[in-house]
Design goal:
Blueprint: H1 5-36, H2 42-58, H3 60-69, H4 72-92, H5 96-125, H6 130-159, H7 163-180, H8 191-198, H9 205-211, H10 215-243, H11 248-269, H12 276-297, H13 306-331, H14 337-365, H15 368-402
């Protein structure tokens, strides 16, 4: 179904300012890492990563309930302005303690805003346009992810470490302003509607996911997939530079190839109209193929051979992101989507942190080439083990809906 005029306005505006905000975040993160790197303490970099991740896990229950009980636009405007103030503080105060404390505060706000915007998308676009809206927003963020690291490095070299953070602060402020211009708003559901869901013991986001026969195996599969990708992210710099003897540019093009693929995959999958069974099937098949591509990457002998493999993997990962979010939206009752997206985001953040730690441990035991092969094999084999349960559950759910 085509967007109405107001829906088209809202989705395009959301894609624009979310992409701009993600670009600002990426630029700022480069500046912060470059600020702490000269201190010579690996633990400082690790602490920054933890400060940026821990609140997304710890605050997920509170964030989910707040998102589902407050009008979305008001909540997101308030968090956007707070994010802007905190990010401006990061530009002003450069000490280690201040940097870590402000990063903790910033990610605490993001714990509310990130699932808040995700839950808002179906309200802006309409349930029938979920795929298109998800694809547009994620492709905008993909473009920002490709451009951000290079722009961040250029800005730090040209203007120092403060201006990238001021730019990120402005992007948060503009996001808050743009949110007020949206025509549609997600309002709290009636208490009776929430109580009817609560009576089924499905109110908590993590509880809902775990009790849903379709989402439970899918989220386990995707978490194993993200664990594999996290190991690859740790190993690829050593594989590219030490094993394949690539230059800094050669290594940088790995991220560019993968990022360009995710943009194409997001845009292409946004045009698909798939039922839940096909969504599950396509997600599983895509993850298996990505695992094979990653494993094949561990066999290459020249850095140029990595680029087409990672571009193809990026296309599939971009499609998986759109299909996965679409499946979650379709399976989740509207009144508790804030809880569900906060909970699933917390699970994925925890997976990423574990993957980084695991990648570091595995690299002390195995060669980078072996780590890539292991990660690819783990991703593919996990789907072989979990996939049949997910497909059986999705088909059973379809039959129940037909009755």
């Amino acid at each position: 179904m085509a967007f109405s005029k107001s829906q088209r306005h809202d989705v395009r505006l959301l894609a624009l300012f979310r992409g701009a905000s993600y670009l600002g975040d990426t630029i700022a993160l480069i500046a912060l890492f470059l600020r702490l790197a000269p201190l010579g303490h690996a633990w400082a970099i690790a602490a920054l990563a933890i400060a940026g991740s821990l609140p997304l896990v710890a605050l997920a229950p509170l964030a989910g309930r707040t998102i589902d009980h407050q009008p979305a636009k008001r909540l997101l405007v308030i968090t956007g302005l707070l994010e802007a103030l905190i990010c401006a503080g990061l530009g002003l105060w450069h000490g280690l303690a201040a940097t870590l404390g402000l990063m903790l505060a910033l990610s605490s706000c993001v714990a509310f805003s990130l699932p808040g915007y995700t839950a808002l998308i179906p309200t802006l676009a309409g349930e029938e346009n979920i795929e298109r809206s998800q694809g547009l927003v994620q492709s905008a963020q993909g473009i920002a992810g490709v451009a951000g690291p290079a722009l961040g490095g250029l800005l730090v070299g040209w203007s120092g470490q403060s201006w990238p953070l001021y730019i990120d602060a402005m992007s948060f402020a503009l996001s808050a302003l743009a949110t007020t211009l949206l025509h549609h708003d997600r309002r709290p559901s009636a208490r009776s509607e929430i109580e009817s869901i609560e009576s089924k013991r499905l109110l908590g986001g993590a509880s809902f996911v775990w009790h849903d026969d379709v989402l439970r195996p899918i989220i386990v599969a995707v978490m194993v997939f993200m664990l594999s990708l996290g190991m690859v992210n740790v190993a690829e710099v050593f594989f590219a530079t030490a094993t394949l003897h690539a230059s800094a540019l050669g290594y940088g093009l790995i991220g560019t190839s993968f990022g360009a693929g995710t943009i194409l995959g997001s845009l292409a999958s946004s045009r698909w109209r798939l039922g839940q069974v096909r969504l599950v099937k396509y997600v599983l098949v895509a993850i298996v193929i990505v695992g094979v591509l990653i494993g094949a990457g561990g066999l290459v002998t020249h850095i140029a051979m990595m680029y087409p493999l990672l571009f193809a993997a990026g296309v599939l990962v971009g499609a998986v992101n759109v299909m996965y979010n679409t499946l979650f939206i379709k399976r989740t009752p509207e009144p508790i989507r804030g809880r569900v997206f906060a909970a699933s985001g917390a699970m994925f953040t925890a997976s990423e942190v574990c993957a980084t730690a695991l990648g570091g441990v595995v690299l002390t035991l195995l060669a980078p080439r072996t780590v890539l092969q292991l990660a690819g094999g783990l991703s593919a084999l996990s789907i072989v083990a979990i996939g049949p349960f997910a497909l059986r559950a999705s088909r059973a759910a379809r039959e129940r809906e037909r009755e």
